[in-house]
Every structure is written in C-alpha cells, then in structure tokens.
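Ticket reopened. Same input as before:
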Amino acid sequence: MTAMRPDLERTASALFAGAPDWTAIAESGLPRLLVPEAAGGFGGDWGDAEAVLRLAGAAALAQPLAEAMLAARLLADAGVALPAGRVTIAIAQGRVTDGRFTGSAPAVPWGGASDAVLAAVGGELLLLPPGVATPGLSPAGEPRDRLDWQGAAVLAAGRASTSLGKSGVGDSAASEPDLLALAGWARAAQVAGALGAALDLAVDHVNTRVQFGKPLARQQAVQQQLAVLASEVAAAGMASAAAAAALDAGGDCRLALAAAKLRANLAIGRGVAIAHQVHGAIGFTRDYPLQLLTRRLMGWRSEFGSEGAWADRLGALAVARGSAGLWATITG
Amino acid sequence: MVAVFALPPFAFPDDSAALRGDIRAFLARHQPASEPAARANCWAVADPEFSRALGAAGFIGMTWPEAYGGRARSAMARYIILEELLAAGAPVGAHWIADRQTGPLLLRYGSEAQRRRWLPGMAAGEVFACIGLSEPGAGSDLAGVRSRAERVAGGWRLNGQKLWTSGAHHAQVMLALLRSEAGSERQAGLSQFLIPLDTPGITIRPVIDLVGNHDFNEVFFDDVIVPEDALVGVEGDGWRQVTAELAIERSGPERYLSSHALLAALIDSAPQDPAVVRVIGELVAELWTLRQMSMATAAKLAGGEDPVVEAAIVKDLGNSFEQRLPQAIQAVLAADLDGATPLLRCLARLLLVSPSFSLRGGTREVLRGIIARGMGLR
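Engineering reply: fixed in the latest deploy. New output:
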C-alpha cells in the first residue's frame, strides 16, 4: 500500500459518484495509476489499483478504467509510449506477418470507441490500431465490440511474460496470456466492490421495509441469508486484495490471479441471488439501483475467464505440481 | 459500506520459511498415516505418541512464556505449524484442545499456581485437556447449563452431566462451565472449573459416532469434590470467559482443512478426466481464499483485537467448504463407494463425518446470527 491510498480512495469515490464521462476519467489521471512516476504516472501499486477498482465496481462505473489502467501499466513495463486517447485491452486471435496483424477479438470493452488496443495474442502482447468494430453490448449496456484487423500495422510488440517485469505474472516456460489473468483479477476487484454495494442496498432495504408488523431485518430467515451474502462479499474482497498483494510481492502469481477471478465468480452466483431475494420485487425494477450492479456482475462473470475456464487451469496446475507442490505454492 | 470483513491481507515475513522447513522436517521424521482416510479430519484423531514427540520438538504451546514450558513464539509462527500439521494430516487430536484453548485460557484467567501445575505438561504433549460445555439440555443455547458446583469446606462439590465431550477418554483434565450460584439463571452465576478427570465420582462413557469412532463422551459428576483452586478466573464470570474462549477457536486453519486429505489424495491420483480436474481447480480457488481470510483474521487476533464477525465468517465459509469438498468430488468420480481404493475410503469417511464440521465449535446458524448482528441486523 502506498501512502497516497487514503487520498486516492477519496478522490476516486467523489469522481465515480458523479457518473463521469471518459474525459473526466482521463483528466483524473487514474488510467495512469499503475504507471511509475518517472514515466508520467502515479506510481501506485497493485493494492492501490485494487482499491480504486473496487470503488469503481461499487459505483457501477460505466467506463473502461480497469482496461485503460492495465494497458498503461503493461505498455510502461514494455517501455512503449502510451498512445493518446483511450486504450482498451483485448484477448485476440490471429497472426502477425511482416509487422502486420490479421485477426479478431470478441467482446472488446469500448472496442469501437478506443484509439488503440493492447491485445494478447497467444503469449504475445501487441499494440494495435482500432480495428473494424462490430458493435456489441454487455448485459449492462456497455460496449463490447467485436474487432477485426486485416493486415493492420502493429504499433508495438513484446512477450507478455517479459513485459510484466517484476510483477512476475508469467514465467518463461508458460505461454499463458498474462493479460487475461490480470484482466480477470481486475474484474474480481470490481466484483468485490459491486457485490459489497449490493449488500449495502440489501441491508438498507431490510432495515426499512416492514412486513408482518416488523422490519424484514428482524426475520431470522432474512438475517441468515444476509450473513451468507456478507460472507461472499468478504471472500471476493479478500481474494482480489490478496491477489493484489501477491502481485506487489512479486514471484509466481498465476495461482493467486486465477483463484481471485474464480472465487469472485462463485461469489456472484451465490450472492446476487440473495441480494435480489431479500429485496423482493423492488430490486427487479429499472428505477432501483440494484439493477446497475446485477447487470454488471452477470456480465463480468463471463468476462476474462468463466469459472470453468479458470478451474480447468487451476486444476491442471494442481495436478501437475502434485499435492505437496500445490501446498508449497499456496504457502510460498 | 457495511464493513464486515475489512482486514488487510497478511503475508508471512521472509524468516518464516525456516520455521516451515523445521516442521516439514519433523513431519518427514514422524510421518502421518499413509492411508488418506486416517489423515482426514486429523485434528479429531488422537495419537498420544505423536503429541509427545511434537511437544518434545517444541511445537505445542509454542506461544506460551518459557517459564511455563512454552517457546515464546508469535501467534503467526504457531499458525505456520498448525497449517503444516493439518495439511499433512498429522494426528494432532490428543493435544489440540490444550494447545488451542485450555492453555491460552489459563494464561488469560488462571492463577500462577494453575499455570505452573498444568501448562508445562501440556506443552510437553503429555497432559491433554477436554472442554466441558455442552449438556443434554444445553447445546447451541449454552446458557442452559445446569451442572452445578456448590461450595463446601475447602472446595467445591460438583454434580451433573456433560455431553458430546470430545477426547474426554484421552484427557487428564476438563475445563468445565458449571453453575456456581444456586438459583441463578442463564448467563449469570456460571464459573469455569479445571477438573482432574481421575477425581473420584467422575464417570466417562463413550458415545460412538455414526462411523463407529469413539470421539464423543458423556461425563457424569456425582458428588465430585475438587479443591478451592479448581475455580478458574473469577467466580460468576464464566460466561464472559467462555465466550472469549470460543472466539479464539473459530478462525484457525482447522476450519477449512478438515477434508484436505481427500483433495490431496485426489490430486496425487493424477486424474485425467477433465471434469475431475475442473472440480480440483474450483476447490483450490476456495482453499486459497479461505487461507487468506483465516490468516488475516489470525493476524488481527495476534494484534490483540477481537475480530468476532470475521472469525464467524471464516468458520462458516470454511465449514461449508470442508463439507462441499467430498460431495463435489463424489459427484464427478465414476466409482461406487466400495472401499476398494484409499481414495474411495477417504471419500466415504468424509461424506459421513463432514456433517459434524458445521456443528462443532458453534453451529452454522449461530455463526450466521453473529454475522447478522455484526451488520446491525436484529
């Protein structure tokens, strides 16, 4: 944790509360939070980023801040100048021939509105110009555009693992697309915030809504359900915070990042249902703010790795290392 | 925001690797049973020989002052020892209660004479303790305790019955909650007593569990006379002392590692079936997260604070995980539970004993009530 975190959290909270447009986000400098000061950034650590992304999730921020933050950091690590405008991230497929990329990426956040795209292609990171966009929308109504590139000039390229430098997400033997793991972790932080905000709404609701002659909060069945939701919020929050701490500590972070996104996904499945159940019909309306959280949570659950995708990866890692090796990794 | 769990992640200092190496070396010399079923739920498995060796190596009561046989190590150093023992499936049941609960309680509330009499033997892995809380009419509603202690010349006369007393047949001493004020009700008038189990008038009878194990006992007190100094702490303050004792026991690594032997055995069977690999991955993600939550809570406890709600969350989530683990594995294994392999024997055992995980040390419903109160509900 850097010394600026309390100020950072205050600034971010105030900014996000005003439903900022992209210009306001860019002017705040938050997209450069993870960029070293020497390279024109804030010099924040991964824990700082986790705190800001959690607040963004809680505020249902409708801007690609997580994407811009990760792109700026990875480009800075690779020594590539940050392009002007909005830079998003993509998990793409395709090939580079003579410095030109042909391929595509599905569901790129704000893909069509971006000025450049940092794309993971296999184990490589490519900085690409905006491709041809086919508009798509997330359940929350945010752009998730398909991008196609046909012989597009690659602006910069690097190995994902080396470009991550001391954060050490990759290791040279692995061809894991590290951007995917980092983006999954960023979503986990947003999930922790959004699910926490859903818990806040639920607690407010049961304290004020009277049925059977008393507030819902006094019904033991309701209390027990909210205890489960609170526990899921706690688990998602600890998973994303501990993964950030692992990134800050360096070393092999693959297990932590994968576990964070997978645990966050499990928390969505278990938690959203409870938040809605205790709200009754009001939580199901367009006018009540729970929908802003639910629609994002359900979309994020699929993005940058479903439960199954991360479980396959973690399971393979566990089997490859054996139970003793797994335990050594977890406790290392 | 409702801050029910706002603890920062904990990371062990770099010099903790040496301690982890020490306990792993000890476990290499004193290997737990090779049969996974015998390593399952290992903190309910008593092996006095193992406890004696562990005590001799300095790994019991290790946070206690050296004057009482301890090693004056930090609480987080002890955490490392516990999680390594549990992950390895070591039979730590004999000394577990003395190390976790009775010893620390004596350090907190006991007299100098009580500490000098009991703690060195506990730290040596030679004196084992059990907890006398539950009774036929007092389970989750512990304030219903009716077993009583009456003042007599030079001491106390005890009468009544304790039930579900784990390990009473291995233990030399019981720390019991008794009604010491005649006619008192509920939380008032209760006191804690340290009772040597070889005192005349005590009868211990086994209560065999559904897999045929002898862990539980019923313990009868018939005009048992104990000396004045059997009273622990302040007369009439038993409820407050016991509540603090229960909070200590809720968030440790034993709350999510009880089924670890099965996960380890499954991983080491090198499964190829993608469905099995996927279940392993999901369980590993939960295991990693629970360990982070448990360590963060332990670190706060070690800092002298009392994270009641966080500890309840760790126990509830941890117990749910320990219970879900065998069922999730059963769901993807294509085999009947015929006991043909070590893995299947371990699975069958955990399917049957895991319902107890969310009962012992506070039921799921009680814990969720604590969490709800922490959010201001009620």
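The longest strand of chain A covers residues 87-97. Residues 178-331 of chain A form a domain with the Butyryl-CoA Dehydrogenase, subunit A; domain 3 fold (CATH 1.20.140.10). Please confirm and we'll close it.
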